Amino acid sequence: MSLVETRNLRVDLGGRNVLPDLSLMLPEHKITVIVGPNACGKSTLLRTMARLVKPAAGTAYLDDKDVHDQPSRDVARKLGLLPQQTLAPEGLSVRRLVERGRTPHLGPLRPMRESDRKAVDDALDSVGMRHNEDRPVAALSGGQRQRAWLALVLAQQTDVLLLDEPTTYLDLPHQIELLDLVKKLNHDTCRTVAMVLHDINLASRVADHMIALRGGAVVAQGSPSNVVTEAGMKAVFDLDCRVISDPCRGTPMVVPL
């Protein structure tokens, strides 16, 4: 069994069956990118893996156990989630926000220790937000806020990271910078990463493993070269395209017709 796995997962939201019968696993210590059209169940899948959505049937496993049978604090020590939509309390500084990532490691009577402060410092440094640590989160640009929230997740120091559209609000250079950061974190710390991305070419650039969803079902999975094909893009997105080799990385590149 993988560290993160689903078996026969069925999720209903608002009277709609979002995930009908989904079984998959995230390769350990690899970056998995989940792609697919809007409303195909990508975010719901991440939220169910993170114990935020309870399935109608089937099981989401974390570390060989049903994630919904585990205490919230235990899950938060193993798995960090960066959701699509985030909202910080008014007036909260960047540093105070990131410090919240240490909450699962603190007891009710135990203040932050030097190791906790170092984890916060390292997280801020890794996303380039140390110089903004005293600014209110509300005063930041959209891209800066996204980095601050990513730092919070990194400060948790979990073995698994689930990132739901982490490049939202970022311009292209900062998208590439953030994805290269995730790639480096994966390489340096062997964390298991799963993220939802909409840009197929960037997904191919960063992914070790790809999962393509449509209608809540897995259409294709495997290496980017196995998933990002002309037939695959037609099946997943109904997109007519040519797939060529990225001249810089050698990864698949989609050229729409």
TrEMBL record:
Top-rank taxon? Bacteria
GO CC annotation: what is one? Answer: plasma membrane
Q: Which residues form the ABC transporter domain?
A: 4-240
Kindly give the membrane topology term recorded for this protein: Peripheral membrane protein
Q: Where in the cell is it found?
A: Cell membrane
For this UniProt record, give its keywords in alphabetical order, as a comma-separated list. ATP-binding, Cell membrane, Ion transport, Iron, Iron transport, Membrane, Nucleotide-binding, Transport
Kindly indicate whether the keyword Chaperone belongs to this entry.
Answer: no
- GO MF term (any one): ATP binding
Q: What Pfam families is this protein classified in?
A: ABC_tran
**What Gene3D superfamilies would the database entry show?**
P-loop containing nucleotide triphosphate hydrolases
GO annotations under biological process?
iron ion transport
Broad class of where this protein is predominantly found: membrane
**Recorded family membership:** Belongs to the ABC transporter superfamily.
PANTHER family, alphabetically?
Answer: IRON(3+)-HYDROXAMATE IMPORT ATP-BINDING PROTEIN FHUC (PTHR42771:SF2)
This protein is called ABC transporter ATP-binding protein
Organism of derivation = Qingshengfaniella alkalisoli
